[in-house]
Amino acid sequence: MVIDRSDIQGNVLRAYGNSYPCTAYVFVGISDVGGGRAWLDETADLVSSDEEWRGEKPHSHRNVAVTCAGLHALGIPQDLIGTFSDEFRQGMAARSVMLGDLGPSACERWDSGLGTGAAHVLVILNARAKDEVEAELASLRDEIAHASGVAIVHEQYAELLRPPPGDPAAPPREQFGFSDGAAQPAIAGVSESAAPGGGVPLASGAWRALAVGEFVLGYPDEDTLVDPQKRLPSAPADPLGRSGTYVVYRKLRQDVALFRRTLRDAAARFSSGDEELLAAKVVGRWRNGTPLVTSPDRPDPRFTATAPGSNDFRYLDVDVAGRRCPLGAHIRRSNPRDALGWPGLDEAGLLSFRHRIIRRGVPYGPPLPAGVLEDDGVDRGLVFVCFNASISRQFESVQLQWLNDGNGFHLGYDSDFLLGSPLGTGKMTVQGDPPFMLGPQGPFVTTRGGEYMFMPGIAALRALARGIET
Ligand code: HEM
Question: How far is the CA of 181 from the centre of ligand 1 (A)?
Fold first, then answer.
């Protein structure tokens, strides 16, 4: 399968990663079709593709996605818009109650410009340093100021957190203090070497990489590999159907002080009193990324998330009962690998690999200083961004069925402890003799806003900017 990298936007299949730690997300509203198209057409010239850059690494990258309201604002014909998936057309705010955005996470309380229909185009700027992203941002603001019928409705800056002092090579961490982002799906033709742990677990014990169509539209996915007649109706019609992907954007505020206090107080009741072990049980990995399944008693200080084989583990062979990695740990819920049953191709209902997402989130806000247990009122968290070919089958399934609900794991109402409970109720069961009930589950993570978007291929972006007749 030849993948046309020059038509797929950058950062989708291969991460910009640590080379570009600074990101600005700029949501733009369009009030005039002609002005909006003209601006988008100029912007399309600056968009990075997935193609290898020749020679020196660029200082920065620009990428673009559109909301469904944005398709309308750009004057895309209704019958073409009708070929996009239902969930994209409805938008995240309309589905927010189903996603669990209740109480403080309710869409009525979201940051201004998100979830209201005002956000039409998202421009993502990635750069090597903050001053470089600021220079890009200044030039984008200037372009928009000089365009007609185009205005910025929301901006968000995000930046990878610096490694802890004395360990400059440590992987980036999210605000709660865990290494994040290393476990990604392995994709055929792109990241085959990551197949062990990142691909499809085979009965032989081996793994194979996933079909690229699970993430990029217009290519065969895992369904069409089995039955070419079978196709989920999530890809829009031509000329937009090729090389695009659906984007989920969620600004997730993290209450780090509350999370720390909860762990500290619970550790006082935990049999070993070991707060770090309890923290690892919540995620399923120690803070440096060492998986509990392979290293249940202590983190491996030499663990490198990017080293070959570091993500190569399953649950059923050594940990069916969750004694090492709890059944409700964040990574076991968000990617159960083989934990839900036989991993072969026969039991379609249990195929976890049909629910994979490419995560490209970046933390925002300054970290809460080590040891601080009271909230300082500063807004910090994770700009959660993921790419998938079907928002309902992939992102929403993970969020709704696995993170928000315990049924699939025989855990009743227990939801993912790391993400907390917006209403401040709930607990996590840490399997053991006797099992430990971790609680109370506070609102550790609050949704501050979000959008469902479509990131078109480069040719499709041009078509959007130039107008499509049907
Ligand atoms: C503030 C919110 C969140 C935090 C702090 C967080 C943190 C983490 C951490 C520390 C890991 C382990 C490191 C790694 O595997 O890369 C992880 C893995 C993962 N998370 Fe999250 N996460 C958050 C929200 C979400 C959401 C909303 C989803 C999906 C709806 C999600 C899906 C995943 C997936 C799929 C993995 C990889 C699991 C694997 O392949 O083993 N996370 N997350």
Answer: 7
Q: How far is the CA of 72 from the centre of ligand 1 (A)?
A: 33
Residue 425 binned pLDDT confidence (cut-offs 50, 70, 90)? confident
In terms of phi and psi (left: phi > 0; alpha: psi -120 to 50; beta: otherwise), the region of 73 is alpha
- Ligand 1 pocket (Cβ < 6 Å) reads 174, 176, 178-183, 252, 254, 283, 285, 330-331, 334-335, 357, 359, 382, 384, 395, 398-399, 403, 418-419, 445
**Distance (Å) from CA 13 to ligand 1 centroid:** 18
Paired sense of beta strands 445-455 and 436-438, if any? unpaired
Cα separation, 136 vs 142, whole angstroms:
10
Query: Using one digit for the tens of pLDDT, what is the confidence trace for 101-114?
Result: 999 999 999 999 99
Mean pLDDT, residues 402-418: 94
* Test site for ligand 1: of 96, 282, 331, 358, most ligand atoms within 8 A of the Cβ: 331
Q: pTM, whole model, 2 decimals? A: 0.97
Gap from CA of 180 to ligand 1 centroid (Å) = 7
* Triad 11, 216, 333: Cα angle to 5°: 80
Probe target for ligand 1 pocket from 95, 178, 180, 355, with the most ligand atoms within 8 Å of CB: 180
The b/e string for 304-339 (b: 16+ C-beta within 10 A; e otherwise) is bbeeeebbebbbeeebeebbbbbbbbbbbbbbbbbb
Residue 307, pLDDT > 90, answer no
Name the 3-class secondary structure at 449.
strand
- Ligand 1 atom, smallest distance to 181 CA: 16
pLDDT in tens, 186-245: 999 999 989 999 998 887 888 999 999 999 999 999 988 777 777 666 789 888 999 999
pLDDT at 369: 95
- Give me the DSSP letters along 156-175: EEEEPPPPPTT-TTSPPB-T
Q: pLDDT value at position 342?
A: 58
